[in-house]
Amino acid sequence: MPCWVSRRGHGFRKFFQIFSLTDETFVVNYQLRLGDDVDHQRVYTMVAALDYFYWMFGA
């Protein structure tokens, strides 16, 4: 389960993920099954950014 609040050393990513957290972002990040060779924080940030831009352009 993604818990970006407890992550340290992620700088801008942490604040952006907190700012852009919605129900949809949480569900998608929760359902992701990522391997060990994947940068989890980068994937979570990209999901949050895409969700944020979908909300912004859809409004």
Roughly what fraction of the amino acids lie in strands?
under 5%
- Radius of gyration (CA) equals 11 Å
Question: How confident is the prediction overall: mean pLDDT?
Answer: 80
Shape: globular
Q: Sheet bearing the most strands, described?
A: none
Distinct helical segment count? 3
Taking the alpha carbons of the first and last residues, their distance comes to 29 Å
Task: Please characterize this protein's 3D structure.
The chain is an all-alpha fold. It is 61% helix and 0% strand. The chain has three helices and no strands. The longest helix has 19 residues, at 40-58. The mean pLDDT is 80.
Outline the secondary-structure elements.
Layout: H1 12-19, H2 23-31, H3 40-58
Compact overview of the structure:
The protein has helices spanning 12-19, 23-31, 40-58. By secondary structure, it is mostly helical.
List keywords for this structure.
single chain; 59 residues; mainly alpha; 61% helix; globular
